[in-house]
Fold each of these.
Amino acid sequence: MKITFHYFIILVTAATFMSCKKDNYDPPKTKLSGKLVYQGEAIQVEYDRVPFQLYQYGFGKTGAIGGTFAPDGSYSMLLFNGDYKFVIPNDQGPFIWKKMPSGEPDSLSINLKGNQELDIEVTPYYMLRNAQLTAGSGKVSASFAAEQIITGTDAKDIERVSLYINKTQFVSGANNIAFTDVSGSSITDIGSITIEGTIPDIVPAQNYVFARIGLKIAGVEDMIFTPVQKLSF
Amino acid sequence: MKKIFQFILFTAVMGAGSCKKDKDFLDIKPISILDNESAFSDPAQVLSILADLYNRQLDFSTFDDWSTFADFSESFPSENGRAYIVQRTGWGYGEWGINWFDSYAYIRELNLFLQRCEAAPNLSDGDKKRFLAEARFLRANFYFEITKRLGGVPLITEPLLYDFKGDPSYLQHPRAKESEMYDFVISEAEAIKNDLPADVNVKSRASKGAALAMESRAALYAGSIAKYGATTPQVALPGGEVGIPAGMANDYYTKALNAAKEIIDGSAGGYALYNSKPDLAENFASIFLDKNNNPESIFIEDFKLKSGKVHYFTGWNQPRYGAEEEEGGRINPSLNLVESFEKLDNTYAPLPVEDGSGNPIYYTNQADIFEGRDARLSGTVILPGTAFKGRNVDIWAGYQLADGSILTGDDRGAQKVLPGGTNPVQVVGFDGPINAKEFTAQSGFYIRKYLDPAPGGGSRGTSSEVPFQRYRFGEVLLNAAEAAFELGQPDVAAGYMNQVRARAGLIIELTAGDITFDRIVHERRVELAFEGHILYDMKRWRLATKVWDGNKMTEADLLSNIGKATKRNTQPYALWPYKYHNPSSPNNGKWIYKIVLPTLVTGANNFQLGNYYSFIDDNVRSNNPKIVRQPNQ
């Protein structure tokens, strides 16, 4: 039999069609999303600071799928359908996440069968309310009310209150162009706290800044914040 | 018929030939592999096995990679590829972790060495004792290094063997308590110290001094974790894998003091502070360079020219102008560190840049601003206006003109015309500083520690044989001082501190009343700068979350509270010299200084509670579910 060009064409075509079959798994498509809430109110945190973990049952390995909450307290993940448990590791976040008697963090079971929205209910040490931020004449003025949620033996003091100003919408201790601290001991009425910060020169010039107020709780690493606001001036 | 006879004969010969047993025929000893017995038959042979084990020790800062010296705002990394060090806002939890597999492979080989050496019939008792003690030292020191990073880990002291029956769970060991790790290091040191030579000249191999120095440092770490761990109660695990109960602190401090005392009183050999050169800064720099008659170094990682084991630390970091290679200048010590060196009257002060009313201070000579400071400053840092290898460094950022503007260039040694002049003149130093120009002195300083002044030391072809000091007598004195202070003996502490300080020219003695925690912290920072201590010290005092708190530093932060243990240190600042140009002024041609934050510095060090103990990989915990997760991660 003579090998002609035809055979070659046929071979290549056949091979091409056969390889149309996917040799890979489908990517995860089910979206799990939600936000951190206390009684329906969103809790604002710092970018990339408050982690959570998802464990999927049934795969031998015990490692977690990890992620962090966005500054507005939201999270979202693309996953496969299945049974999961949701955990916030110990001592993370400006709130209390229940622990088991053994010291392990308590977990939330999630049965994922399609896109799901799930808000994570936690108990923060403090809530920040009625934040009013205004910018003008080179300054940002802010006022807000703090409410102590956790009282009794687990109650914690306010270490300080900070006003952060940044060029971009990532505003925190790590990302800012200016900040002002007010120590907790100098606050007389937590129901009405005012704080003021100077806007430094911005290069290249822009006529707006982003600002938010953070509250540092004594003995807790992560701060709780007010929503980021864009302030034009 | 004749054919048949031939066939029978042939078969008979073949049969007779195969009478030899299979075993004799097939079992031939390979000539390229030594079996255990012959490997452990000759002391020189054993030493070469041990040499490989020595080579695999772990250090935080190592000459293999200059950037291991560069973090924590003690310096600015002047290589654009490493600028991330000053741009990140914190460290991942996995930072400073270990390679689990390699580490336990190494521990297994140490355990095998111990087992085989113990069983070797042909070694003399004296040789065997020393080899065994050396391997145990290496194992203890390695576990100590892991403990500093991870806290308690499975403490394996026997070679483990898998039986291939499909169930490896009997090989899964849980993490030991952190205190058990330190107890192990301390008890090993006590057990082996008398089997090791008490000889000051044994430096690259384990000696009695090395074992005791390791013991004193380990006990000190354990004591401070017990004491200061109480300030961060979240950094602990219920099983004690992380965290040590506060009640154990005094016991550890006592052990640390006793081990240090044993070295100081000479029972481990004639160790002493290095004091051979009349110039104190030169003397301090020589601790790290002098390989002969150096009574200070106790245990080193040694290097040797033309042996293959050399390093290029000098080439990476030498002053670039006129260097042996057209490169260098990578580690630029920060102003944060430079200003923390005391004045000779034992007080702290920022470098005087401005007078009381805010006008710049004019200096006739560039180096005058650093006058009257701790000699360790110019022993550790190459200052503007001083020399390396007999050649002055050319560090200045430009001309300050009378109208307040600055004339500078964007290339090393750039030339421009001065106002009133006709010909272009040099307007910036050949060593910089130039913003974002890598390999120039972007902080205004170069590192001096370890820089090899020998000809060829900074060239690729020759490189350097300057050793890395793992344990040295100066640290032992500071260990003793800290332990004594924590045990309520400030007078004893002052005695040890004063020895170290007198060597640096600080001859006004500290009294018992002067010794505070801040003093202890400060003394270690300046004496042991760039020796791989800063992270572990800050961790064990639980200061890391305070000094690296993630907030950007202001100039006010920089200039205040110098010498305070909790002083913020999140961004490396720079000090740039300028030449004053104003022909009508008496200050024409004099030097002024400006404090600047290099523009590449955009991040701020943020040490989180989860950074105290490095992340253990999920795969490791998956393979061995008995290993518990680190806290706060």
Amino acid sequence: MRYIWAFILAASVAPITYLFSIPCGFSCAQCPLGGICILAYPLIFLGVIIIKFIRKIKSLISKIA
Amino acid sequence: MNRFEILKKNKWRYISFIIGFLLLVSPFALLIRLEFWITGNLAEPSIHYACLRMPIGWIFRGAVNYLISRPEMTAFIIGVLGLSLFLGPIFCGWLCPVGAVSEAISRIIPLPNKFRIHIKDTNITSALRYGFFAGYITIYILIGLKLSGDWIGSICCRFCASTILQNLAAGIFGWLLPTYGSIEYWGTASIIVLISWLIIGGIFTYGGRGWCLFFCPLGAFSNLLYKVGAKLGFYRITYNKDKCSHCKKCNLVCPMWAIKSDHSVETALCINCKECVNICPTGALTMKWGKENATK
């Protein structure tokens, strides 16, 4: 059942992405965000990495304490 | 076996990646240039002429005459898919410049593996890969049937990693060819693809083949044909469980997460790169022709 859900989830990604990207695909930086999405993705990933490091640091401190 | 020994053992594969870049990516595009020279096409050759979406769109639109009037595109698709049936997806594993660049970036940037995405269940990876492929084909058909309007076709190029690679190459090597003009498909979607292909798919994915695994329709199609070809007894990877020492070295080097939990190879994901065959210390993984000892 897990595999079927994974398949359905992945199959819906491309059509949904196309629907969402139609307005901005033709006019980059013309939208109210002014192209902020260019920065958003790297920032999200940077955030994930920082959170991972903070968890490590916290566990290290708790071990020492 | 350290990183340099792996590089040495697979040197022909890495050399062929450079050849693949020179064959397909403008301003070089030597293969497409040759095709254009034979067919008398005066257009500027680029990887744009090795497109999967357009021929499928033409078929569903009923414009089959394009398949004849654009022979370079038809020949490329038939060539890649035909090779996949008889020899496995060797285009993906040995020539594709898009996969080569992301794989190279993954190896160059020494990010610890704990920060990298790695799905170990090959069935989940296959379900995600072929699910996305099904969604992609739906879009092709919609474009082909003109249900979504013709203009959506150019949006596909914005989501194409090959186009992004072509634009990057134009920026770096464009000065070599004064008449060369890059394909103008830069935009928000291109940046998202660039991030998904090189950053998420390259740096943050184990093996650096995230784009190939989940988003490349040509790769998924090639692997379906490889699966059929392997069942029919064409050139394929085989696993001998009696020889296997369960050292898991194959698991560590496979860029496509194609090694199953029992250490056999999932042909729906394997790109015949032979990294696992070259690293296997007992010879449990080998390449074979013929019907006997079918791939497990």
Amino acid sequence: MPLQALVIQLLFELNKFTDSCELVIGGIRVDERVLELIRRKKRLLIPNLAIIFLFYFMLPLSLIFYPDFMNKKSFVTGVTWAWLYAFLQLPFVWFMVWLYHVKAKQFDRRMEETIQEELP
Amino acid sequence: MNLTYFLFFICIIVCTLIITYWAAKRSNTTNRFYVASGSLTGFQNGMAIAGDFISAASFLGIVGMIAINGYDGFLYSIGFLVSYLVVLYLVAEPVHRLGKYSLGDVICSRFPSNKMRWIMAFGAFAISILYMIPQLVASGFLLRLLLNIDYSISVIIIGGLMTIYVVFGGMVATSWVQIVKTVVLMSGTFLLSLIVFSNFNWNVPFLVERVKELTPLGDAFFLPGHLFGNPIEFFSLQLALVLGTAGLPHILMRLFTVRNTLEVRRSLISSTWIIGLFYLMTLVLGLGTVALLGYQTLIANDPTGNLAAPLLAKEVGGDFLLAFVSAIAFTTIVAVVAGLVISATTAFSHDIFHHILKRGKSTEKEQLRAARWTALGIGLISTLFALRLETINVTFLVSMTFIVAAASNFPILVLTIYWKRFTQMGAITGMVSGLVASLLLVILGPHIMNPDGGWIAREAIIPIQNPGIIAIPIGFLGAYLGTIFSKKQRQSNEEFKRFFIQSQTGIASRRGEP
């Protein structure tokens, strides 16, 4: 998906920290380890966002461009692909929310550890 | 009005007023008044978000839309739900970390200036009022239909209640009214869904067959394409729905009412579960309405289909259940409008009065007094507007709100948080172009310009019902052009870095003020 890759690249460029000067925020020295954590968080965020938009917009797009296929019966008895896809959006949302929660918890824990080490 | 209805309504009014009384004793600081001092737990806040979000348009409108249009009605709710992923992934945590009471705080933590605050306050105020007035008007009609009481009396009751909640109880009362609403709404729709299933012996294929028999669409009821014929309209609506929530001030404001980002995430987890399950139940209710009442009966009672859920309740549970569902609809409305009053109040009294007029120097007492008077003023003015607008069709404004939010607040929030080069000029041009474009597109569109009963009886200049697909890119483009044509701000790399690290990690907030 070249467009998607381009968007990801662009988003990366927008926020790349070019300089690595030391910062002190709220009495805490922000060093390379904190920046690395944020970078890792972003690396996770961008593809996930791409997946969310792709999965969501594929539903209207497939209904617009492939109505015949979407109205065919799927492998679940009595359910067409259109209904199956629409229903799948719900567990998809719950899964993505849960995924974010788990990853953010890890991020918070690592950040806390880093900050604890920094404190005198 | 018979006794059953009366008792249900009195019960709800008394319960919410008790909550307000209890909250009023606790709303004695600005922090309490605006954000309940972050005292809600994630789950409570999740329920309140759901209560803030699910309007009567969702509850009654979507059931009706499913009953009339089948598949396409259900698609509406999918967009509403997925929009929470955009909120969670892009804006939730940074908004919580950067803001104190309002969206103006969030943007001004990067671009601190009065100009910026004016614009953010105006945007939040306009969106909240635009959303509130049609809700009030719709509630007047709804109560008239359900309870047979006069339009003006219904509007005055609802307008009065929302004002009382906010003036006396602030965010604490608003939150708890919304939580109660979610509990009542979810249990009511769950009960109704169970009754629908039991009417068909828990046999879903049988229910589906009955639906096909009783709708004029026949088999095609379960196929897409009855509501959204035009692909551009369809795509445009889906775009506005998915991006709109992340720009709605009354929803984002709820992210300040918990104490940390863990609770923010818990709030959004609970609200997506509640909202997702709710929409599944509306599907059952929509199908149940067709299968038990038939299309003709529904249309004969109300051609818009908004009465689907109440009619279904009457069919399966008689007057008692109808009274219960009407009470749910009533609670739904007051909870949503109360949320809108408090968001408009914050925009005015916190951003404009405290920060701009008083240069951030007003005392706690003055701020609290200003907030209460503002809430009273907003409640009164919007009730008066709603009373005057009885004869004019304003329901389209509800869906417009999502477009306005997605075209103005959403681009500004995302670019402020994530774009290093973004400037204050860009934020202002983005906000203004998004607001102006979306409002202009509505005025020039078929909602207003319509030879057949529109405000302006002429052919629409821009014949598109859902102008999100044009307005949202204009919002982003305005922000982009404003940025590249403005002087590069003196804000250095380091300052953005500081801001960005704060927004992503909250490091500075640990030591008091950012």
Amino acid sequence: MAILDILKLPDPRLKQVSESVASFDQVLRDFIADLEETRLAGPSAVGIAAPQVAHFQRIVILDLSGRPKTPNHGHLVLINPEITHWKGFAMGREGCLSVPDYTGNVIRATQIRLKAQDADGVEHQYEMEGFEARAVQHELDHLDGLLFVDRVVSRRTDLHRRKVYK
Amino acid sequence: MTDTLSDWNLLTLVGADRPGIVSRVTRVLYGLGCNLGEASMIRLGGNFTIMLMVSGARPDAEILDALAPVAGELGLRLHLDPLSGGLHQHLLPNIQVRVAGADRAGIVADVTEILAGQGFNILELESDVAGERERPVYIMNIQGYSDQTIETLSGALAPLTERGVSVDVSPVDVLIG
């Protein structure tokens, strides 16, 4: 087990797109253990993505088990995750281990359906909402080389834009 | 890093809005060797307003003299005040208060007095007057920090609801991922 270094903005490697995981072996399990140790060592992050520690594979850890009032699936290891359905949107404030001392407003889907494998390669489907859905979207962005600062909107942004009639 | 400089100034500029103000002003500041910190620019009533943290690498008089031609040309009023504190002093809000109601004098004082009485620290406040000219609606959004529960704050603000002001208190949940 080891605490890994977290890449921080403006490290260009945070823009890198991660590769799918093909081998569900001991090497993967060892890395997941290190990633979890790294998450727990920092400021209370509900999630961490592999590319944040310069490991460019599609691996995310999510843990909302400490938030009993928030609907959630507890501690999850998500390998090759994919959002298959989106619904609704809301603005919420986000921060990131890779962007210290900054938070900003980001618009995210409020309900999602997620497909992902676990550490043994078994596929699962999840229905997620609210804070957990937001956390997944934040972490999955890392796998595609996106940070929340790429999506920040002004607090004056009109969430319910007026329809433009032609 | 600019954070090691403790001598920040707060530059305030106000005037009629037009494109190019920020670029002209910041170019002059850059030319003086000043660093910029946190800034907030917004249009208020169609006017340009900005408050800008400027590191005091130069004497105040020199900064003001350098900005005078641009301010004169663009019709901007400016202030330069010494600022205690510096960067990296963010506080995270945990409560949001949304207020809306028929516009009348005193809404802000009423709401914020109640919040202050609860020890609520306002970190961000923005307000606007919407609706039709004949029927203006005052809308205000506050984000801040409080140790009180949502229920306690809602209860304290409840008398305003009886007076026709809609007040909504909700948590601000900052996601760190």
